[in-house]
Amino acid sequence: MEKLRIAIIQMDIAFGHVKANRRHADQLIREAAAKGTDLVVLPELWTTAYDLTRIHDLADDSGEQTKEQMSQLASSLNINILAGSVAYKQDGKVYNTTLLFDRNGNQTASYSKLHLFRLMEEEQYLHAGTAEGQIQIEGVPCATIICYDLRFPELTRKLALAGAKILFVPAEWPHPRLHHWRTLQVARAIENQMFVVSCNRVGRAGDTEFFGHSMVVDPWGEVLFEAGEEEGIFHVKIDLDLVDSVRKRIPIFEDRRTDMY
Ligand SMILES: NC(=O)CCC(=O)C(=O)O
């Protein structure tokens, strides 16, 4: 596949209202699919938002509800779904976990956020994952990280070295760090010569305002798409051949000095 149609679901998330958020996501995914897309992407913690003091009660046990809902949507709508992330309970521990579903409704991958964000007290309530997020979508090697993971260039480099052509970033990234959000995505795209596709939420939780600005950056660092601060479904088509042509033009992966660093 050379071209991939992606629908970014930049949604608001009701604080702690899992049922309402599931209904809302369901409707948005159906709308996205009706316009034609290969892949739908949701934001971080889209079922609960950062309702961390209640996260043990709200978390999805072994991801069962998410798996049932997303698998049914993916197969009936014939789309891939990168289901943002959800609070995922396993052996009494809660993780911030992304799940990927293919067109047949099979769950093909999962990834739990490696870096917990202390500014939003994640480390007090959540457990960090222990494996990177290498994934395949329609046979294309890709990768996913989650939000704060974007600040750790070594992780994305490792994923690029493993062959990823697209980096997905489900997020709940708030004001006042829009400048960091934009700059880090462009940097990850340029330094790894890969697409970066992000899906950030909008709306408020208390004093925290989430700005959206979901983005698609190409492997040359050009911003192909940047959303505003409103809820919406954004359709972007990317040409995957660009990854190889940029990597040929400036062969940074061949020029790395692995003897030095
Ligand atoms: N949900 C998050 O990980 C937020 C990360 C963030 O806001 C940052 O500045 O980093």
Kindly describe this structure:
This protein is α/β, with parallel strands linked by helices and 261 residues long. The protein has a single domain, classed as 4-Layer Sandwich (Nitrilase/N-carbamoyl-D-aminoacid amidohydrolase). 29% of the residues lie in helices and 31% in strands. The protein is built from 8 helices and 16 strands. The strands form 3 sheets. Strands 1, 2, 3, 4, 5, 6, 7 and 16 form an 8-stranded mixed sheet that branches. Strands 8-9-10-11-14-15 form a 6-stranded mixed sheet, covered by helices on one side. A two-stranded antiparallel sheet has the order 12-13. Helix 5 (153-161) links the parallel strand 9 and strand 10 (166-171). It is globular, with a radius of gyration of 17 Å. The termini are far apart. The mean pLDDT is 98. Residues 4-240 form the CN hydrolase domain. Keywords: Hydrolase. Pfam families: CN_hydrolase. InterPro entries: C-N_Hydrolase, C-N_Hydrolase_sf.
**Could you name the CATH class?**
Alpha Beta
CATH topology description = Nitrilase/N-carbamoyl-D-aminoacid amidohydrolase
> Which descriptor suits the 3D outline?
globular
User: Unreliable segments (pLDDT under 50, ≥5 consecutive)?
Assistant: none
The tally of beta strands, per DSSP, is 16
The distinct bound ligands, ions and cofactors come out as: ligand LYUYDEPV
Overall mean pLDDT: 98
Please give the count of helices.
8
Helicity, as a percent range: 25-40%
Number of domains: 1
What class, by secondary structure content? alpha/beta
Q: Please state the CA-atom Rg, rounded to the nearest Å.
A: 17 Å
Report the sheet with the most strands, covering strand number, pairing sense and barrel closure. 8 strands, mixed
Q: What percent strand?
A: 25-35%
Distance linking N and C termini:
35 Å
Q: Give the name of the CATH architecture.
A: 4-Layer Sandwich
CATH evolutionary superfamily:
Carbon-nitrogen hydrolase
Helix-strand topology string: EHEHEHEEEEHEEHEHEEEEEEHH
